[in-house]
Specification:
single chain; about 140 residues; mainly alpha; two-stranded antiparallel sheet; 2 strands; elongated
């Protein structure tokens, strides 16, 4: 019988924009929620491109249904973890456990292009292994 290593629950302090926050490691619930967001973004992009294509609504509905039924691959999740959307959402997941007052819609006040590299490293340290430490997110400035 195998057991999962005890990894959950260890918080740490980080400083973002001069303010100290407590963040928690990402857990399976955070990643499952992120999977849903990746799926929604995939479907939204497809819908936009299909609507612009001039296809009949029945064909668009069929294509969206087929795409929505496809599972999100681990590769898609890893690729999106390092995106601006991914860093924003996953850092919010880590913050909301001890800072419920921080809303997702307000993350733009904490993360911008000047500190995106730093935020990316925080997410990587919290369990977002796909976000490579030391690699800069496209558009971000590493300090």
């Amino acid at each position: 019988m195998s057991e999962l290593a005890p990894v959950a629950g260890k918080s740490r302090k980080v400083t973002i924009r001069g303010k100290e926050y407590t963040v928690f490691p990402l857990d399976i619930d955070d990643l499952a929620e992120f999977e849903t967001i990746v799926r929604m973004e995939r479907n939204r992009g497809l819908l936009k491109s299909l609507k612009d294509s001039g296809l009949q609504n029945e064909l668009i509905t069929e294509a969206i249904g087929a795409t929505a039924a496809k599972p999100v691959s681990l590769g898609d999740i890893e690729k999106n973890m390092g995106s601006m959307m991914g860093v924003r959402f996953l850092l919010w997941c880590a913050l909301r456990k001890s800072h419920p007052e921080v809303k997702l819609e307000e993350m733009g006040k904490l993360i911008d292009l000047d500190n995106l590299g730093e935020a990316t490293e925080i997410v990587a340290d919290l369990g977002g292994k796909a976000v490579k430490k030391g690699k800069n997110v496209k558009g971000g400035k590493k300090k």
